Amino acid sequence: MAAILVVCSGNICRSPIAEGLLRRALERRLDDGAPAVGSAGTIAVDGAPAMPESVEAARERGVDIRTHGARRLTPQLIDDADLVVGMAAEHREAVARLLPGAAARAFTLKELTRILEARTTAETEPRLDARVGAAAAARANGAPANRFDEDVVDPLGMPLETYRAIAWELDEWIERLLRALYGPVPARAEGG
């Protein structure tokens, strides 16, 4: 099964929220076919809990991350992932340093979303790895980028309102990413 790894610095603020939101969105859209989602941090202390503000901001968006335990980013975690989604450019670059062969599978959330949204041809390949490969090829060929708006801000040390804003931003970008990866949400038949 395909796996998605979300990466930030400490794996206690942004990436746990993003992991929870992404897992929920994928499960809603793909049911049992949803890829596994995990997270890690470039400077994480293994086992550290998510920040209380992250837990609260995620809870307010309908996701429970109370049992989250941080993991340090390793080459093995990267190797196990079909897609690595960094919260900032520095995280994408850390992935490439740890496992150079994975650079084509590493993007920031905003970068990947913009690349996929800019594609003009209809996607017919349902496999995540094929879509990631197409995004990597588009990036290599000069896909649209916005280097001034690539990162999700680290809320560490900021008030709860900042965590709420980050959770909202992540939720919006994740929904855009899934629309770009899988198309519009299919209409479900309403049963009586």
Please give a structural write-up:
With 192 residues, the chain is of the alpha/beta class. It has one domain: Response regulator (Rossmann fold, 3-Layer(aba) Sandwich). 45% of the residues lie in helices and 10% in strands. It has seven helices and four strands. It is globular, with a radius of gyration of 16 Å. The relative contact order is 0.18. The model has no long low-confidence stretch (mean pLDDT 90).
Secondary-structure blueprint of this entry?
Elements lengths: L2 E6 L5 H17 L5 E6 L10 H9 L14 H5 L3 E4 L2 H10 L7 E3 H10 L9 H13 L19 H23 L10
Parallel strand pairs: 1-2, 1-3, 3-4
Helix pairs in contact: 1-2, 1-7, 2-7, 5-7
Using brief descriptors, characterize the structure shown:
four-stranded parallel β-sheet, 7 helices, Rossmann fold, alpha/beta, single chain, 192 residues
Q: Can you count the helices?
A: 7
| Sheet with most strands | 4 strands, parallel
CATH top level label:
Alpha Beta
What structural class results from the helix and strand content? alpha/beta
* Radius of gyration over C-alpha positions, nearest whole angstrom: 16 Å
- Here the CATH topology equals Rossmann fold
Measure the end-to-end span.
34 Å
Number of E-type strands:
4
Low-confidence stretches: none
Overall pLDDT, averaged? 90
What is the element string, with H for helices and E for strands? EHEHHEHEHHH
Instruction: Give the domain tally.
Output: 1
CATH homologous superfamily (4th level) name: Response regulator
**Proportion of helical residues:** 40-55%
State which percent range the strand residues make up.
5-15%
Indicate the overall shape: globular
Strand order of the largest sheet: 2-1-3-4
Architecture (CATH level 2) name: 3-Layer(aba) Sandwich
